């Protein structure tokens, strides 16, 4: 059977328990798709799956701002990051909002007719470039949590999707056909147009802890922190903070020197896509973990089976990845790969967030 997954074999959603099973139920109810590959691929690392879903839900689905506008923003980010899976997904979701003409204009590579949507699209595309002049916000200031959260969600999602999924949203590439895009969107329309209650995903982020009496209770110390100021007072803030914390723990899969190399390269990145012949990237045989992390940040679609195989084979005791301790790489699990990709991806998200924080307020209320 064909599978949308590359490099990993995620656990079956049917076998999910606890918080992961709760997340799948919420995804089906609020996103309209039962066990979408976007989240199944993260389920090897539930500590990433749960906050990734929470951030998407609380920004795109339940956050402040027009759903169509936020779908245009997500489309623009996905276009800038060269993620065909997500470009197709947001085209379908625009059909689901009822904006069929807009969805098909974007599918043809044309600009939106609406000036507001055109400005949202341009703004979202430019967020890939660190330090870019984004100009005035193309939406009201009180909608920042929804729009910023959506953009940062898909700077993260695009990267792990490009690394770990194929490019086809529908079997046999059926998303290329206009009738299939429209039909799929219409099937989701009731869910997409239903109002979602903000904050419903946050209970998924609280981790249980065992007390001195042996009973399990919610651990307040592990509850999400306040989060960034641009989302202050909204559920987007703790969702973003939880994802950031979970993603950056992937640094423990690298040596200190590898981390320094990757972080310096991402800090110096100008937003450009690399040439066909990769130069200046760590070699897969010498520094395979650093190569995967850096590609995840800058060009995840360039990760190959050879890159992953070299990383799995290159077990070094004490580098944080060989849990078996035998030097053979048996400990390099799918969870490790998901965490490593997420680490690199979130370094790029942080560059995007820094750029967004310098965005001036809108010239007028929109």
From TrEMBL:
Molecular function as annotated in GO: peroxiredoxin activity
SUPFAM superfamilies associated with the record: AhpD-like
Transmembrane stretches, start-end: none
Every Carboxymuconolactone decarboxylase-like domain range: 51-95
Coiled-coil spans in chain: none
Region (Disordered): 203-230
InterPro entries in the record: AhpD-like, AhpD_core, CMD-like
Pfam families (alphabetical): CMD (PF02627)
UniProt xrefs under NCBIfam families: ahpD_dom
Protein name: Carboxymuconolactone decarboxylase family protein
Lineage, uppermost ranks: Bacteria, Bacillati, Actinomycetota, Actinomycetes, Kitasatosporales
């Amino acid at each position: 059977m064909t599978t949308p997954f590359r490099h990993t074999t995620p656990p079956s959603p049917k076998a999910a328990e606890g918080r992961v099973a709760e997340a799948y139920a919420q995804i089906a109810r609020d996103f309209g798709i039962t066990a979408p590959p976007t989240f199944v691929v993260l389920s090897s690392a539930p500590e990433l799956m749960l906050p990734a879903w929470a951030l998407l839900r609380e920004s795109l689905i339940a956050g402040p701002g027009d759903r169509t506008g936020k779908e245009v923003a997500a489309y623009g980010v996905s276009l800038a990051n060269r993620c065909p899976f997500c470009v197709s997904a947001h085209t379908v979701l625009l059909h689901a909002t009822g904006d069929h003409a807009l969805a098909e204009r974007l599918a043809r590579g044309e600009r939106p007719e609406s000036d507001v949507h055109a400005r949202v699209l341009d703004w979202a595309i430019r967020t890939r470039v660190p330090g870019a002049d984004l100009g005035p916000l193309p939406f009201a200031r009180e909608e920042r949590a929804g729009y910023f959260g959506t953009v940062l969600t898909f700077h993260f999602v695009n990267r792990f999707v490009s690394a770990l999924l194929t490019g086809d949203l529908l079997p046999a590439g059926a998303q290329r056909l206009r009738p299939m895009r429209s039909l799929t969107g219409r099937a989701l329309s009731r869910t997409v147009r239903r109002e979602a209650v903000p904050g419903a995903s946050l209970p998924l982020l609280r981790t249980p802890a065992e007390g001195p009496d042996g009973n399990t209770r919610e651990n307040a110390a592990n509850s999400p922190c306040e989060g960034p100021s641009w989302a202050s007072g909204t559920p987007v803030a703790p969702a973003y903070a939880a994802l950031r914390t979970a993603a950056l723990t992937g640094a423990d899969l690298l040596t200190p020197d590898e981390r320094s190399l990757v972080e310096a390269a991402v800090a110096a990145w100008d937003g450009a896509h690399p040439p066909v012949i990769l130069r200046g990237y760590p070699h897969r045989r010498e520094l395979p973990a650093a190569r995967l992390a850096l590609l995840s940040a800058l060009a995840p679609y360039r990760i190959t089976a050879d890159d992953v195989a070299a990383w799995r084979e290159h077990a070094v005791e004490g580098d944080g990845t060989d849990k078996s301790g035998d030097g053979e790489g048996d400990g390099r699990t799918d969870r490790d790969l998901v965490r490593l990709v997420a680490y690199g991806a979130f370094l790029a998200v942080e560059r995007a967030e820094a750029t967004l924080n310098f965005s001036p307020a809108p010239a007028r209320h929109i």
